[in-house]
Amino acid sequence: MKEANEPSNIVNISQRLDPSSGRGGDLLNAVRSIASRRLQQYIGNMFEHVDDALFDLAEKAENNAAQMHYFDGMREVRKRRPVIERSFLAHVARELNDFVNGQRSTSQGGSPAPVAGSIELSLVADNELEESLAITSMIGKNETRLTRDLFAVNQRLSVICGGARIEDATNPIGPALLAQAFRQSMRELSADMRVKLIIYKLFDRYVMTALDELYQETNAELMRAGVLPQLRHEVLRNTAGGATASGAGTTAAGEVPATLPAGDSDASAELLQTLRTLFGARRAHPTVPLSAMTQGPLPTANELIGALSVLQSQAATVPVASLPVDATMLDITEQVLQLKEQLLTQLGSLRGQRPGQIATIDEDTIDLVGMLFEFILEDRNLPPPMQVLLARLQIPYLKAAILDRKLFAHRQHPARRLLDGLADAAKSWSEESDRDGRLHDTVKAIVERLLQEFDDDMTIFDRLSAELQQFQESNRRRAELAEQRVAESTRGREKLEQARRRAAREILNRIGDHVLPPLVHGVLSRAWANYMVLTILRKGEESNEFREALRFVDAFIASTRPVRTPEAKRDLRQLLPGIERALRKGLTNVAFQDADIERLLGQLHAYYRQQLGDAAPAAEPAQAADSAPAPLPIPDSIQPLAESMADLEDDPAQAEPDLAAIAPEVREELERVTALKPGTWLEFSNADAHFERAKLSWVSPMSGRYLFVNRRGLKVADYSPYELATVMAEGRARVLASNALFDRAMDAIVDRLSHEDGRTNDTE
């Protein structure tokens, strides 16, 4: 057997099988059968979700053009889905057939990148680049996530292929070749690149994410057939500081990498290089004199893991304190700051001698993880109860960082994704939005499971991430429904208020300086105003019905003018039948009872007889002309609309002051407010020091008001831009960071080390 630090693809010669033999061919055919069955299921499941995803995006599109792109994409996908599915499965089948026949893929099969400076650097080239980046990111993320299972598949395929070198890039069911096969099949789809990128994301979510099931079934089948049944795949640290999956064996005791690992992107590499430089400068000025240190051999990685496991088991038995949050915060902060000292003490207990020094890479890792958790305790984006919970993860994360140096290098590292996911969930937490404690209990359970169960199996981070994602997804669906109802309710109220103001404005403009009799004024400002509001809501402001309602207002007002000539009397008599018909129709539409309509018309008849000088009972003209009629009963169905003319005219969304009249600090916040996008989280506080976290859910296109909801989708508040800017300027609201916790922490750590280095240089 080869040593563990030799190339991992070398296997025992006695275990190699000839693929041309019956046994080797049968095993490869079994792999092909498993892959074909599962991939057909996965790709079908993915396409079942494409319609919903594109429809949701179309509903949220910023303009009609973008909306049409998504609708066109939906139609194109529906039409081309069978062709794309057949093409993808055919590509995979061809790769598997070539593999069975001994023909190995040697390239990623991607499209060539456009030549710099070429006149062909066009939209097509840009699209190709976008597509390539999406594919590359997808492959890298899943090869990292699936390292263990994919490694085992590679090793077993190597055995049944006679010892041929099988790597991630040449495995016919590996993420690389599957992603490229899908990319080739997507050439059958003539859709906008935005639509294609959405489909790639869904492919990642529903096909790539499910590959662990395919690999586990493949490994189980080959193990049953006796192919490397004892294969072990452990995380080993290589001399570059990364982590590799390997066969049986471990690294030599005490072997540690000399530097932090290179990242999976230029940005990661640059960040890590900066950290190396800053930690190097820090070590050049030790705070403890070397003469004061106890000398002894450097602790090995195994010793560090052993000591941390002891500390972890002790921490797992300590429940979250029932003290007030402030007291608990002080206690947990002290634990975070003292972990390094506790680790050295525990190492001394295990080896009988306290180490004076720790290997440079391990000391940097301990300090880096310590700074990460100090940042968590200072991060105002996290509510204090959540800071207390997450800070308990320091020991498991230090173990993970020592086991796998890629934790700080790769954004998609499982441990990093779990911590970012926990922080993202915690950001939205508040007592009010989590009355049943489900979010708090879920985060607490994940923390406790890591403390109790994490030994050296890094797959626990993937499992817990999946559980957290499932919890978040189920809550997200419920919250979206509630949020949609809140938005619809708010939109309905705004339409109602807008209709009221339009009706009031039209009536007031037409009355002008006229002094109307109380009876006529009452009809216009109450009953008819309600009819106009409902007409706007049901038919719209441009409808014939609304224009007829306005003509009635004109005619009704005209009917109150003094009648002094025979011609004026004739004109009034001609108006009256139309006024009565329109009034009967309008009042019926707003649910007046027949008896109430007849009583109102009786009062109007008395008034018009007096206008025309016709004979009438003495009491009726006097009542009509000199006193207000008894108020008309308002039907329950329109009670919310029954307001005085002054109320109708009043605009609840007060006009915002001119920019020049706004205080400078409010004006500065107003610029930030106008840049806010839906989905942004804010923290609000009131005079009682009560805090609530809310997401900007919707900006009204009618009033410009900002609607905020909590994590359950329930309304917290709504503000005009000026009101929100004022609240922020007064310190009663602040915007929470939208980027990932780990990214914020790394930036803060670099800034902190840079300032430490600057202070050191200043004192020299």
Keyword list:
764 residues, mainly alpha, five-stranded antiparallel beta sheet, two-stranded antiparallel sheet, 25 helices, elongated, disordered N terminus, DUF1631, coiled coil, DUF1631 domain-containing protein
Short description:
This is DUF1631 domain-containing protein. Helices cover 61% and strands 4% of the residues. By secondary structure, it is mainly alpha-helical.
What does this protein look like?
It is a single chain. The chain has 764 residues and is mainly α. 61% of the residues lie in helices and 4% in strands. Strands 6-5-4-3-7 form a 5-stranded antiparallel beta sheet, sandwiched between helices. A two-stranded antiparallel ribbon has the order 1-2. Strand 5 and strand 6 (715-719) form a beta hairpin. Helix 10 (325-351) runs parallel beside helix 12 and helix 17 (518-539) runs antiparallel to helix 18 (544-558). The longest helix has 53 residues, at 459-511. The radius of gyration is 37 Å and the shape is elongated. The two termini are 56 Å apart.
